[in-house]
Amino acid sequence: MDGTELYNGETEDGKHKDGRKMKMNSQEDSVEKNGTATNSDNVLNMYDKNSFSSLYLACYNGLESKVQVLLDNGDDVNLKANNGLTPLFAACYHGHDGIVQLLLKNGADVNLQTTNGRTPLCTASYNGHHGTVQLLLENGADVNLQSKTGFTPLNVACEHGHDDIAQLLLTNGADVNLQTTDGFTPLYIACYNGHDSTVQLLLANGADVNIVDKKGFNPLSLASHNGYDKIVQLLQNGESIN
After folding, report:
1. Range with the lowest mean pLDDT among 29-38, 63-72, 163-172, 228-237?
2. Given a cut of 80, is residue 185 above it in pLDDT?
3. Are 114 and 149 in contact (CB under 8 A)?
4. Per residue, what are the HEC states of the chain?
5. Looking at residue 50, what is its pLDDT?
6. What is the per-residue pLDDT across 128-140, written as a single tens digit (0 to 9) for each?
7. Which of 99, 134, 192, 203 gives 20 to 30 Å between its CA and that of 215?
8. With a threshold of 0.70, does the pTM exceed it?
């Protein structure tokens, strides 16, 4: 339960598949410092060899003025890399809220999914960017949209103990008992990772302690097996209430 189900093989963490740090390539320098683009360099939707566009790289690196120039010159705001990542994912990964707002204003699809089925909201939730999550929700992000393995933004927030994000998602309609393809609930995931405050938050919002995964394990058996005594107590109290 380390997030690889959701993030398998994709590289919005700023590295190519060969481990190199992503950076603006030489073609990016054709966007001049005065804010104009040279037509002869053909910067529109230019890709590096790993299929990341000029706009994607500018978003990833937080270069808001360069993003504006590229958008003004016609770059496709929803252009996907080979793995399905768009410029909005790059901005959300680092919490570049100014760029996120700029992309959304220029037609970025807030619910566009990668080849693995994850969304910009999942990315922002995974990395604990509260402001970015709020911005995406205000612009129509589907809080319960699932990846191919069934993960939701709430799942990944609970995986990393981002309680403020989890509360924000719950307030905006996240299903507290939605299961992944393996039967994992947000509560199950929080228990697996030992996040007692997250467990408490989920229980307060109606999490069902009795839902089992495909192997028959429930949150209580999982917490007990891992030696999380405080979580066991929370779950037993929650079970008696339910």
Report:
1. 29-38
2. yes
3. no
4. CCCHHHHCCCCCCCECCCCCECCCCHHHHHECCCCCECHHHCCCCCECCCCCEHHHHHHHCCCHHHHHHHHHCCCCCCCCCCCCCCHHHHHHHHCCHHHHHHHHHCCCCCCCCCCCCCCHHHHHHHCCCHHHHHHHHHCCCCCCCCCCCCCCHHHHHHHCCCHHHHHHHHHCCCCCCCCCCCCCCHHHHHHHCCCHHHHHHHHHCCCCCCCCCCCCCCHHHHHHHHCCHHHHHHHHHHHHHC
5. 57
6. 999 999 999 999 9
7. 203
8. yes
231: pLDDT strictly greater than 80: yes
- Which amino acid, one-letter code, is at 61? N
